[in-house]
Amino acid sequence: MQFRLVIHGGAGAIKKEKMTPEKEAAYRAALETALRAGCGVLSKGGAALDAVIASIKVMEDSPLFNAGKGAVFNHDGRNELDASLMDGRTLAAGAVTEITTLKNPIVGAHLVMTKSKHVMLAGKGADDFAAAQGAETVSPDYYRTEERWEELQKAKEKEEKEEKDGNKHTSLQLEEKFGTVGAVALDQRGNLAAGTSTGGLTNKRFGRIGDSPIIGAGTYADNESCAVSATGQGEMFIRAVAAHEVSALVKYKKLSVEQAAQVVLDKVHTLGGSGGLIVLDRDGHFTMPFNTDGMYRGTIGPDGKPETAIYR
Amino acid sequence: MQFRLVIHGGAGAIKKEKMTPEKEAAYRAALETALRAGCGVLSKGGAALDAVIASIKVMEDSPLFNAGKGAVFNHDGRNELDASLMDGRTLAAGAVTEITTLKNPIVGAHLVMTKSKHVMLAGKGADDFAAAQGAETVSPDYYRTEERWEELQKAKEKEEKEEKDGNKHTSLQLEEKFGTVGAVALDQRGNLAAGTSTGGLTNKRFGRIGDSPIIGAGTYADNESCAVSATGQGEMFIRAVAAHEVSALVKYKKLSVEQAAQVVLDKVHTLGGSGGLIVLDRDGHFTMPFNTDGMYRGTIGPDGKPETAIYR
């Protein structure tokens, strides 16, 4: 059976005119490294779940994406990370939210899936559980990059200005850049898996949880339909139960993955949201639609040649 | 248009032979009070969303149910409460998790829905946000009932014994009693809404989050299909994305609410889970299936006569 891996590194206001050749090359190289990592698992007959974890780990370790190292800062100047993972063969799932000490939140999600009877653990409890199960821990300053720190300062300045202008709840305003990473894979045994990892929103407050750690919203995988990972304004993806809605449209309305993903992205748009989706079915059909300026994305198959794209 | 309200007060090992007549009467009276509270809203032409909140508040305020006052204790001897709410007309949704100071977590969920741009807030941030928006706060000992405290002590004794016997991860074992409360309503304008509130699992650790605060898993409402609230072993309801799956089966496979709820409950059972669902569509058709010994449940319509049931 033909295997396939599809990844995203976030969607949003990614414009060619604002990108330097060096930065673009760095993103493409990081995406290729992530694709090769997952492909290495799949080409040897490994499981889709392990390929998803392998490729997401690469993106978490890269400072370029809003996941793991390079995660955005919350209002208090800290990093709080979310991740989720699902096995399409068994519908087993794991998720962690408000992680502050794990090098790889996706590994935390995997440990919740495999070593606990729970699906979702939060905060210190999630950190402690994963660490006790052997996950690699880091000090909170591991995640820090100067670019993200400056983004927080700018977001706070903007917020202060808007609050002075009498604009309430600006702290809860949604961003136009989403660096969430995700992967969907089909292995040689015909099994699907999906995973998503993020640092959430810059300047987020009040313990905000987005769609990335929510099974059904940001991540879903079912061998009977498809594997899905989402990125974008999480609130609208939660309200649309986006990942599971794609799966339901494929399973019950017999839509193609292209059709189903577009229907759901249009629904998210109707709700006022933007972002993107990656979807893969058991026949290896995949789609990577987005309704933003760009989405870091890529795919790899049996020929071992990574294909990446950023803009429309 | 005919209105309808359907509620549940949790499913589980509720056996007639273990119930005293006094206790049964108390549960029935509490369910009737909750039904009348919601009916009062609906009969005057009020919104389904407000009816759901009104009936859930009554059950949160009652010490009989595992929500609000009377919530179960976590491993640390504290109460952490979850709730979620969804408006089928707009797909607006709100959810709070790990609440420790709100008298009515469902009010917190409503404030997240209406006063923030977010859908889900967690922990202290959620408490602080809701309090700043005017939600009534209580000291943590407000939730305490002696029965729930004794349940925690028994659970810990059992856990210690099992750990001595070399049984690992017993702290993560799932319970057979679920006191989660929920409501679904159809108002005279033909709008649907759903809500769910819970104290989670006795002796829960590691910041475990169940299905109750997860839009799509424990709660879902869509005027184009139905309104759903779930109770049971939350992990399996998350993996099945149970509430949204019922909605998808009604919307895309054109199943009746009875058929859709049964299909999903069977799926949850296949995954190893037990519990129950309440589902209501725009024609006022409703169903209250469960695969446990009993489920506290009830319904009320235009005749204003509450109907309640507990056992099979």
Describe this structure in words.
2 copies of one chain form a homodimer. The first copy, chain A, is α+β, with helices and mostly antiparallel strands and 312 residues long. The first copy, chain A, has a single domain, classed as 4-Layer Sandwich (Glutamine Phosphoribosylpyrophosphate, subunit 1, domain 1). Chain A contains 8 helices and 13 strands. Chain A has helices spanning 21-43, 48-61, 105-115, 123-132, 146-164, 234-239, 242-252, 257-270, and strands at 4-12, 81-87, 93-99, 120-122, 181-186, 192-198, 208-209, 219-221, 226-232, 275-281, 286-287, 294-300, 307-311. In chain A, the strands form 2 sheets. Chain A has an 8-stranded mixed β-sheet. In chain A, strand 10 and strand 11 (286-287) form a beta hairpin. The longest helix of chain A has 23 residues, at 21-43. Chain A is globular, with a radius of gyration of 18 Å. The two termini of chain A are 31 Å apart. The model of chain A has no long low-confidence stretch (mean pLDDT 94).
Give a short summary of the structure.
Chain A is of the alpha+beta class and 312 residues long. The first copy, chain A, has helices spanning 21-43, 48-61, 105-115, 123-132, 146-164, 234-239, 242-252, 257-270; strands spanning 4-12, 81-87, 93-99, 120-122, 181-186, 192-198, 208-209, 219-221, 226-232, 275-281, 286-287, 294-300, 307-311. Chain A is globular and about 60 Å long.
